[in-house]
Protein: Na(+)/H(+) antiporter NhaA
Amino acid sequence: MAPRPARRATKRAQFPSRGTYSEALRIGVLLRKETVGGMLLVLLAAIGILWANSPWADSYFALRDFEIGYEPWHLRMSLGAWAADGLLAIFFFLVGLELKREFVAGDLRRFSTAIVPVAAAVGGVAVPALLYVAVVAPDAELLRGWAIPTATDIAFAVAVLALIGSHLPGPLRIFLLTLAVVDDLIAITIIAVFYTDSIQLIPLLVGLGVIGVYAVLAQRYRQFFHLKPAAAWLILLPVGVTAWAFVHASGIHATIAGVLLGFTIPVLHRRRDHVADTEPGLAEVFEHRFRPLSAGFAVPVFAFFSAGVAIGGADGFVSALTDPVTIGIVVALVIGKPLGIVTTTWLTTRLRGISLDPALKWVDLTGVGLLAGIGFTVSLLVTELSFSATDPHHDHAKVAILMASVLAAVIASVLLISRNRRYRRIAHSDAEDQDGDGIPDVYQQ
Structure:
């Protein structure tokens, strides 16, 4: 009898996935842009808080509540509402664009590399929501805010990451960004499903039709207008604004339009589409043009108008601290986020037979989980949708978001700074290029 051939040893998958060198470079550029935006976000939010609690607070609220626009089209809103419904749509457009890129040409296109960050994001949404519900359960009215602590602020988290050390291992950075992007997708779905009270069918159908036209133009702008990608936005921008206006008039939060428009933009998979590296695609052009607008203006201005809460002195602060909404949000973001992310990641890797990258430890993932507890932009938006401006819980929820974000940032900083020396050694090892081809050897193994 012939001997059986020896089985080939299968290589056990590792997490986080290192990805390709080009993907690592792209993520690095994206993180640097988000870092600048995060710093501006923190600065404008601080100015809003200080102004709202200063002797000139009346001028702040007068500015925030000043109305402008055209009423018949449901576009007469306060400046604060314009920031939440209008400017924030730019941010969500880029979220949709980033998701499209990840699904087409990034790590999310493969189930093996997508399963862990997607599962971690789901755990990072479910556990905080359950903790919030457990805290406020005695008062059914407060359950409306269950989704407030489910979101992660990409810009804020990345800004903190940049301040505490730039030597975080590349795979862990990619994991944080992918986790936050998927987290935003879940938050967008929650807003669309649970925070839409009534829908005007005709404006919605018209809006979806315009989005369909936008998609066709985005795919065929070369044939229709003989334009290069750098000039296509001149045609697509007015169509996108029209789609946003109709979706807003339908009663669905207008930021959903931003995500849908982002998904329609074609993303080049250069190896598959046989495109030269020197030729930018439409997604790259739009990201180049709109990310500075989003990170440098839209999100900071939204933070300026949304973070301005009149605390009401020591008594008001004590009242906020004893509110179950405040306690629930702080517990959910600071404890629930890292608990949900790390626990789900551990379970997924065990069930899928995936091992942790030898260069990393679970304490590193705990630090990333704590960074994910920085809920700001989307959490403030969900607060606006959960409680009316006249409800005391509205301001208390915003105080809780600010407190929890600062607390999560401080704890994460203490933990990750202690690991900074190890990160530096890992980064130095990853950067080795012994064959001199310009690509770190770790990406060629």
Observations:
- The beta strands are 14-15, 67-68, 77-78, 355-356.
- The first helix runs from residue 21 to 52.
